[in-house]
């Protein structure tokens, strides 16, 4: 099971594969606490979070501190992955649909 997290200033968009589950939490103490609890319950093999101008650091620290298997990915590499698959846009639904194939 893999979890992908897209980070923005206000919230974290979370996608779980292969279940196709998606949810969002706020990027604050309450949201991070909820995220950690939900992910610990799922016991994912990997949690990938995209580096987003420093907004990812608090979330990455919370996830790593909880002992979840975390990797911070380079957004340029995610973009190149999408391009290599012939996709012009790099959006979360797009990346999720590609990873299911």
UniProtKB/TrEMBL annotation:
Transmembrane segments: none annotated. Residues 3-93 form the Transposase IS110-like N-terminal domain. InterPro entries: Transp_IS110-like_N (IPR002525), Transpos_IS110 (IPR047650). Pfam families: DEDD_Tnp_IS110. This is Transposase IS110-like N-terminal domain-containing protein. It comes from Methylorubrum suomiense.
């Amino acid at each position: 099971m893999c979890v992908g997290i897209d980070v923005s200033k206000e919230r974290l968009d979370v996608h779980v594969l292969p279940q196709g589950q998606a949810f969002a939490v706020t990027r604050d103490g309450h949201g991070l606490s909820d995220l950690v609890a939900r992910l610990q319950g799922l016991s994912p093999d990997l949690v990938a979070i995209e580096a987003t101008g420093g907004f990812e650091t608090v979330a990455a620290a919370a996830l790593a501190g909880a002992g979840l298997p975390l990797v911070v990915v380079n957004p340029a590499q995610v973009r190149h992955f999408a391009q290599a698959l012939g996709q012009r846009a790099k959006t979360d639904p797009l990346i999720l649909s590609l990873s299911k194939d």
